[in-house]
Write a structure and sequence with these properties.
The complex is a heterodimer.
Chain A lengths: L20 E3 L6 H12 L5 E5 L8 E7 L2 E7 L5 E5 L14 E3 L3 E2 L6 E2 L5 E3 L27 E5 L2 E5 L7 H16 L5 E11 L3 H7 L3 H7 L1 H5 L9 E5 L6 E5 L40 E6 L3 E6 L2 E9 L5 E10 L4 H10 L10 H15 L6 E3 L17 H14 L2
Chain B lengths: L3 H19 L10 E11 H5 L7 E3 L2 H14 L5 E16 L2 E14 L5 E15 L2 E11 L3 E3 L7
Classes of the chains: A alpha+beta, B alpha+beta.
The structure holds fe (ii) ion (FE2).
Fe (ii) ion (FE2) binds next to helix 4 of chain A.
Chain lengths: ~425, ~160
């Protein structure tokens, strides 16, 4: 059931019973945002936290986020992967300040409570007091004062975690088709970490998820993409979703740099842009099937990017109703040769905070939020490709956005 | 220690570099590099951990020109002004005609309807060579301190 405002009015009044209208209020209202954190991010969902290659050895740790909560991914002595909250169980200190490192245990700087790599409380200074004075009560049991321990699932090198004890198993959470696409990139091969980038985007976190579920914009906004045929509405393509609509994939095959009768409305396709150094776009096929792009969006906040040979996890960390952080983790495979690594690094020029393509998106999200905030009573329209929420075998559609909001309304009780 | 003349020449190069970006003279920016140059914009954490990913990676002057064309013609962005302050220039070595130099930089960004903000701060780790009597960058790595970028990087750092 939805949480009610003090006056008992519903939190949000959805404009209709369908999914083709999206009230602006959900991009601006602090109360909606608070409930999203509670219900979606800390509820029954799996959040991406790290790649296993980031914590290969015993004692390795990596800081991450689920919603606004800081967590730490650790590799314990027994080889297990653990995800623990970065919050001292004593007085709440965010005790780990490093992005990554290696440690035998974690000690909070405030009162030196010490935890092992799995989050168990090992010791409390002055537990027995000094000279019989002070100390913890006799019934103080360390077992009851460990760090919050999250559910963990490792899927072929990618680590997911959940604050919920009732979250369904990962395979069921994705469903067979989405798991198939996931395992297309995470096929069991050892990964190699190429690096990170991070950006703070002044727009609601859902705008970013919508962006990656909306292939319609790509054919119009991204001149660089459409000019070089990397992702375009006249390419053979589809939008696939799981049964709930919460996850999606945009799947496409590269086309050519020329106008056809189908590209008529793409006024910005620019046939005369000749790259002076075309090495930035020298993709080689490396995955089974003929798709050259698969952009997968996993509920609630992960984007898995396979555009040509550039692979990245894009994790969304919400930072209040009006902004979010986008954390990019670029990777390849341990068996890549030097030329393949070089190719991935060159193609990375298209993505990230300075990406020749993705800059269009971070910029457009900012002006979206700028337009939405002062008009909270209005609603967005998402009718391209109809008003339904079934998978479609073309790109002229906002069906992925509708699928997302179908599930969103259900989970949020709106 | 580099001669005073050389130090002034290096300072002139950095001043010219800032001017091309600050005065929206982007087309002249690649001319300050050699043809087979390497230009990278790298977050500090990748640099410190020897992770190879850069936000911008141009492996030739031609790639710099493509980047300029993309900024000019294909990228959608809100208009803005940038201003570079470059200081603490120091020459760390000079061997076989390759000068290694470092400098601190700060880039300020001004959007049309907002106060100027500190956009990107870091250091340049550069290699300079002389071609036809002119000093040019054969390598430039912009390593920035705050790994969190305020929205988007449009213009080169
Ligand atoms: Fe886009």
């Amino acid at each position: 059931m939805s949480v009610s405002h003090a006056d008992n009015a519903p939190l949000v009044t959805w404009p209709n019973d369908g999914y083709d209208r999206i009230p602006y209020q959900i991009y601006t209202d602090p109360e909606v945002y608070r409930q999203e954190l509670e219900t979606i991010f800390y509820g029954d969902s799996w959040g991406f936290v790290a790649l296993e290659v980031e914590v290969p050895n015993a004692g390795d740790f990596k800081s991450a986020w689920i919603g606004e909560r800081p967590v730490i991914v650790t590799r314990a002595e027994d080889g297990s992967v653990n995800v623990i909250a970065n919050r001292c169980a004593h007085r709440g200190v965010k005790f780990c300040h490093k992005d990554s490192g290696n440690a035998e245990n974690f000690t909070c700087p405030y009162h030196q409570w010490m935890y092992d790599l799995k989050g168990n409380l090992l010791g409390v200074p002055f537990r027995r007091g000094i000279d019989g004075q002070g100390g913890m009560p006799k019934d103080f049991d360390r077992a009851n004062h460990g760090l919050d321990k999250l559910q963990v699932h490792c899927e072929n090198g990618a680590i997911f975690a959940s604050f919920s004890e009732t979250v369904e198993p990962f395979a069921g959470f994705l469903g067979p088709e989405m798991l198939g696409y996931f395992n297309r990139v995470f096929d069991g091969r050892e990964l190699t970490l190429l690096g990170y980038s991070r950006q703070l985007i002044p727009g609601n976190w859902k705008l970013m998820m919508e962006n990656l579920k909306d292939p319609y914009h790509a054919s119009l906004l991204h001149i660089f993409l459409i000019t070089f045929g990397l992702f375009r509405a006249d390419n053979q393509s589809s939008v696939a979703m799981d049964d709930t609509g919460r996850h999606a994939c945009l799947i496409s095959k590269r086309g050519e740099q020329k106008h056809t009768d189908k590209t008529r409305d793409m006024k910005r396709l620019w046939e005369d842009f000749n790259l002076q150094d075309p090495r930035i776009l020298d993709p080689v096929p490396e995955f089974p099937g003929d798709a050259t792009v698969v952009m997968q969006t996993l509920w609630p906040s992960l984007i898995i990017q396979q555009q040509s040979n550039t692979l990245a996890m894009r994790q969304i960390v919400p930072r209040g109703p009006g902004r979010h952080e986008l954390r990019w983790t670029y990777f390849g495979y341990a068996d890549d040769d030097e030329e393949m690594t070089r190719r991935r690094l060159r193609q990375a020029n298209l993505m990230g905070p300075a990406g020749l393509v993705s800059v269009d998106d971070s910029e457009v999200l900012k002006v979206s939020q700028d337009g939405i905030e002062p008009f909270e009573e209005a609603a967005a329209v998402a009718e391209m490709g109809g008003r339904e929420t079934e998978s479609q075998d073309h790109m002229v559609t906002e069906v992925g956005v509708r699928g997302f909001y179908k599930y969103y309304r259900q989970v949020m009780g709106l | 220690m580099a001669s005073i003349e050389l130090r002034l020449e290096i300072e002139d190069l950095y001043t010219a570099y800032a001017a091309t970006l600050d005065d929206d003279d982007l087309d002249a920016w690649p001319d300050l590099f050699t043809e087979d140059c390497l230009y990278q914009v790298i977050p500090r954490d990748n640099f410190d951990r020897d992770l190879p990913l850069a936000l911008i990676r141009c492996e030739s002057r031609a790639m710099l020109r493509d980047r300029v064309t993309a900024v000019r013609e294909t990228t959608m962005f809100e208009p803005r002004y940038v201003r570079h302050l470059i200081s603490n220039i120091r020459v760390s070595s000079e061997t076989d005609g390759v000068i290694e130099a470092q400098a601190n930089y700060a880039v300020f960004e001004t959007m049309t309807d907002a106060y100027t903000r500190v956009f990107n701060v870091g250091r340049y780790l550069d290699k300079l060579v002389r071609e036809d009597g002119r000093l040019l960058f054969s390598e430039k790595r912009c390593v920035y301190d705050s790994v969190l970028v305020p929205n988007s990087i449009i213009y080169p750092i």
